[in-house]
Amino acid sequence: CPVGALTTRDFRFEARPWELESSASICTQCPVGCNTTLNTRREARAGGDFVVKRVMPRQNEEVNEIWICDKGRFVHHYTDSKKRLTRPLARRGKETKLARASWDAATKAAADQFLALKKDFVILASGKLANEDLFNLKSLADHAGGQAYLYSHMGGGELTALVGVGAGTNFGKMGAETTIVVVASDLYEEAPIWYLRVKQAADRGATLIVLNPRETKLDRFASYVVRYAYGDEVKTVQDLGRKSKISDAFTNAQNAVILFGSDGLGVEGTASLASACAKILQDTGHVGKPNNGLIGVWERANDQGAWEIGFQVAEDLAKALKGKAVYIVGADPVGDDPKLAKALEGAEFLAVQDVMETATTEIADVVLPARAFTEREGTLTSGERRVQRFYAAVPPTGESKADFSITSQLARHMGIVLEGTLVSAVFDILAVSVKSFEDLSYAKVSEVRPQWPIVGRGDMYYGGTTYENKMGMGAHLTAAAGRGETVQIPRVQKARNEAAPRPREKELLAVPVNKLYDRGTTVMMSANLLRERIGGPTIALHPEAAKNLGVEAGQLVNVSFNGVSGEAVVKFDDTISVGVALVPRSMGLAIREPVPAKVRPQR
Questions:
Q1: Same domain for 286 and 166
Q2: 164 and 228 assigned to the same domain
Q3: For position 15, what pLDDT does the model report?
Q4: Which residues does 243 contact at the CB level (< 8 Å), separation at least 6?
Q5: What is the CATH number of the domain that holds 409?
Q6: Maximum Cα interatomic distance, the chain, rounded to a whole number of Å
Q7: Domain match, 332 and 429 both
Q8: Last residue of a domain, one of 235, 265, 297
Q9: What percent of the chain has pLDDT over 70?
Q10: In which band, very low, low, confident or very high, does the pLDDT at 113 lie, cut at 50, 70 and 90?
Q11: Which residues, in sequence order, are CB contacts of 200 under 8 Å at separation 6+?
Q12: How confident is the model at residue 500 (pLDDT cuts 50, 70, 90)?
């Protein structure tokens, strides 16, 4: 823009475009896997090192076309935060403070404890990690006899490895021959680019079926909208197999894709929902071919990769962590949930590996500094099961190392040999160890193909809004159904703890929902730009429920459930049931699954 009116606040007056270097990357904020370009420049204030000046879209017509959302554009500032971990830390005893340690001393201290407590060894990893990091962590758990858990509120990921979408799947090619079902998800808040691409598919004639207990922005583009009560998710999906106009639109479609989320659900509920979705896809023949199958609307960028590699989600995570020797990588359970904080206070030993200081690093016995995605290379697996490569753009911070390398060094002290030098070598081992990754390599995921429209070159209309893709468009994993294997879908189990909990008198059913701009660690480190969009803790009530409670919109209330309480501002939503309260995740109120709650006016 010649007058600067369309420039972003974090880039305005910071640099001229022709001064910038470019590095290909992948957005790490949601499961879409948007292709991006990191623009960098040397800065005197960084000691002459390169720093990231802005994030721009990189064309991939099969993923994000030429678009990225504002979360992906701005939530990179945590990578140069003052809270970055720069060197290993360790305690000399339980009562001492964390002090600087060498890499060898810190990893050996952790390894010695994990060996001594190997029967109680637990790894908890985030879906923010690269495939190579997750593979080394899972390998360590397998060799050491430990458990490897994914830090997530969603279950059912193993089913996407069976009947998930595969090669040739592209929302941009879906039209009149395709039916798309979105269940228990608000794509506008959880995966904005998927929201746009599903909307565009509907515009091209695809049949869009939205199943949700509340109104979402996708409803107005849907051919059919079905409202169900919280707790009836599984039954609603199973009804797609029973004779009706809606079921005919699904059953008789040439292609069908189901996107399932976690709106109002926890681990058990999403696992049951995924089973129901997988079963209906299998029964109607919508598996094992392009533009057919199951997609999870995961919380993090590489949750799909973690499921493919063999991670599981603990139904009772606090119980799984209490009294154990715990190795946490890329997650902050202490800052997220008081119950998990209490469980980790009772851990025998705690090693934490992360990019930044968190509430969890504060109580750790050993802290290991990891590199940010801007400082290293690796691969991520999107929710569409597409493996994509990202590249280093800036030098590492302090003494930090890539996660896969740290795990390798720690494993060596335990007598376990894991590749820790070349990330591409880790991927090669992964590709021969995990069936869905077979035949993939860095060379294959780095291949590019001609794309239309031609952008980022001499095209005057689009040239300034995106970058040409020269570094890789990714490649799909194979699913069991696509490989011709016999697929057994587990019997759908009614979620014990989540099947429509019954609130008592003067209680509401608090259900968790997802918000794009939450108060997660990486987002809050970019809060100067996003403060207005993040806001504070809120609770959405039906106006009639608010009237019964004697509260008004905008009023501060006390919300209590599961033995914890907090404050939130009331918002009205007349599309939800009178007995329901919507509580956003990662916004200050630790909610993982539906739970009866009391809402009282703040005194």
A1: yes
A2: yes
A3: 85
A4: none
A5: 3.40.50.740
A6: 68
A7: yes
A8: 297
A9: 96
A10: very high
A11: 171, 172
A12: low
Q: Is the pLDDT of residue 133 over 60?
A: yes
Q: What residues are paired with 164 via a beta bridge? A: 294
Q: Mean of the per-residue pLDDT values for the chain?
A: 93
- 286 with 231, same domain: the answer is yes
CA 309 to the chain's CA centroid: 16
Q: Which residues contact 168 (CB under 8 A, 6 or more apart)?
A: 289, 290, 291, 476
pLDDT bucket at 45, cuts 50 / 70 / 90: confident
Whether 464 shows a pLDDT value over 70: the answer reads no
Q: Examine the domain organization and report whether 263 and 317 are in the same domain.
A: no
Strand partners for 580: 509
123 within 8 A of 137, measured Cβ to Cβ:
yes
The 10s digit of each residue's pLDDT in 434-461 is 999 999 999 999 999 999 888 877 655 5
What six digits make up the tokens of 168? 């040739």
Task: State residue 409 phi and psi, 5-degree precision.
Answer: -65, -40
CB of 84 closer than 8 Å to CB of 96: no
One-letter identity of residue 467: Y
Unique residue bearing structure tokens 């990769």: 305
| pLDDT given for residue 6 in this prediction | 73
Q: What's the pLDDT band for 504 if we cut at 50, 70, 90?
A: confident
Q: Which alpha helices (DSSP H) does 332-449 contain, by range?
A: 333-336, 338-345, 359-362, 403-413, 423-433, 442-445
Partnered with residue 545 across adjacent β-strands are none
CA neighbor of 185 nearest in space, from 283, 328, 299: 299
Could you tell me if 165 and 114 lie in one domain? no
In 66-188 the beta strands, taken as DSSP E runs, fall at 89-90, 99-100, 121-125, 147-150, 178-183
Q: Which domain holds residue 559?
A: 508-601
Type of residue found at 76: H
State mean pLDDT over 549-572.
92
Q: What is the pLDDT of residues 566-585, one digit of tens each?
A: 999 999 999 999 999 999 99
| 3-state DSSP of 310-350 | CCECCCCHHHHHCCCEEEEECCCHHHHCHHHHHHHHCCCEE
Candidates 600, 554, 532, 489; CA nearest to 238 is 489
Structurally, how many domains does the chain consist of?
4
Q: How far is CA 38 from the centre of its chain?
A: 21
Q: How far is CA 543 from CA 5, 11, 28, 549, 574, in A?
A: 40, 42, 37, 10, 6
Roughly how many angstroms between the first and final C-alpha of the chain, as a whole number? 51
Neighbouring residues of 113: CB distance < 8 A, sequence distance ≥ 6: 325, 348, 349, 351, 365
Residues 312 and 434 in one domain: yes
497: which 2 tokens? 């703890």
